[in-house]
Amino acid sequence: MSMTSVLPDVRTFLERRHGLYIDGGWVASSGEARLPVFDPASGEKISSVADATEQDVQRAVQAAKASFLSGPWRGMPPVARERILLRLADLVERDAEILAQLETLEQGKSITLSRILEAGSSQAWIRYVAGLATKITGQSFDVSIPLPPGARYAAYTRKEPVGVVAGIVPWNFPLLIGVWKVLPALAAGCSVVAKPSETTPLTMLRLAELATEAGVPDGAFNVVTGSGGVAGEALVQHPDIAKVSFTGSTPVGKRIARNCASRLARVSLELGGKNPAIVLADADVDRVVGGLTLAGFLNQGQVCAACSRVYAEASIFDRVVAGLQQAVTGMSIGPGMDETAQINPVASQAHQKRIQSYLERAEKAGAEILSGPPAPEGRGFYVPPALVVKPDDTLPLVREEVFGPVMTVTRVANAEEALVRANDTPFGLAASVWTGSLQAAMELPPLLQVGTVWVNSHVMIDPNMPFGGMKESGVGRDFGTGWLDAFTETKSICVRY
Ligand code: NDP
């Protein structure tokens, strides 16, 4: 065991009486209610945040609207916005250890993962999107308008910021996904009201403070902490929210889409997945086992693109199961602050119970479950990693997104059967193909109904590679050079001369 000691700055942050972050500073909620924040490793309360009311949301949206209409952000030269956002990335780098520790303490994930994927990757994504601020372009057109006879026209388009954006963030990668929901909106010149999950609100509050320090003007980046049912609903239904950028579950995503549809507000949805891996007979077993162990159990499987269903051809199936079983049973389990623990608690007690109930139902139905090491004693929200071998396809654990350290492994006759079963789901986020054949590596990806396919890899993302879902896994794509399009409106301007 190698425990990271909690920094004094982290303790101070946890002990603060956090308010809401509105108009560049801390504001008390109009209500008295507080939301506790728990350490998933111990089940202990470590902090609390304001439980925002509808009036609080109103105040935050008003501040964002005033900043959008009359503040300096939107009209700044793009290079000035870029410079401020690059400075924000430098501040995240400066405070990386504070942010990483806060993330592990509120979310449960390994401190190593928090350092690499929350504090580390957040800097990379902020820098990438900062660069897009200076690359917003329209087009010019030759037009053939016939009236009045002899008139001449020139036409061009401008990309203009869409307005006030609501960024709604889940609890699995609170800082990194928080960056994905807030930063492209800022880079495009929008103002933002962010709502982190009530389970993991702390790093978003810290990010907002750092944004002010970097020079983001007051009101351009606001944070309301609160429940989805009150603060989230009030935000999505607010008439001054022009666009909602959401990552989270499919049921909540559908509800948000319905709420946005009533006033035709723009919406992008990055939702859940039930992501298959197809392992063909000629795959490299060691690479498959290493890659799928990471893809299935990283962050305790609380990853929207995690591999949760493996379909392996008959001749390789036993070797894949044996390798995965060895990997799962050999894992160490412990608190996220222990740098050597490979499996850590899941984010909340409610989620722990939800995963356990999927496993219990599968066990009752007679599924073969190969479990990893038992959870440590105590009140932490642990779920040991589990492989479910050859499960019945009708089990909820096979059909629904479990979002935990649970992977099913199914034997298939050939690639055709694997494809049919892989696509037999309402989800369409991601998939992988494992093979030594160039032919299969080229033929299979176009046949998978998902937004991302990895070949001989799974769950690897990059700011320059668009990411998002088909079917019920979402609408729109995050990342890539076109990322800011979803935060702008195209305006055509036609000049008669
Ligand atoms: P939710 O979809 O409920 O939460 C995501 C965010 O939406 C949170 O900030 C939540 O707030 C907020 N929210 C909830 N209800 C509303 C609403 N009516 N209007 C506006 N915002 C709302 O996910 P959960 O956290 O409950 O997780 C449940 C499941 O969702 C997981 O088990 C997993 O299957 C999936 N999930 C998928 C993710 C992905 O990356 N694709 C990420 C997280 C979850 P609050 O948390 O305060 O309720």
From TrEMBL:
Keywords: Oxidoreductase. The active site is at 270. One of its GO terms (molecular function) is oxidoreductase activity, acting on the aldehyde or oxo group of donors, NAD or NADP as acceptor. The keyword Oxidoreductase applies. InterPro entries: Ald_DH/histidinol_DH (IPR016161), Ald_DH_C (IPR016163), Ald_DH_CS_CYS (IPR016160), Ald_DH_CS_GLU (IPR029510), Ald_DH_N (IPR016162), Aldehyde_DH_dom (IPR015590). The keyword Transport does not apply. Residues 26-493 form the Aldehyde dehydrogenase domain. Signal peptide: none annotated. PANTHER family: ALDEHYDE DEHYDROGENASE-RELATED (PTHR11699). Belongs to the aldehyde dehydrogenase family. This is Aldehyde dehydrogenase family protein. The lineage of its organism: Bacteria, Pseudomonadati, Pseudomonadota, Alphaproteobacteria, Acetobacterales.
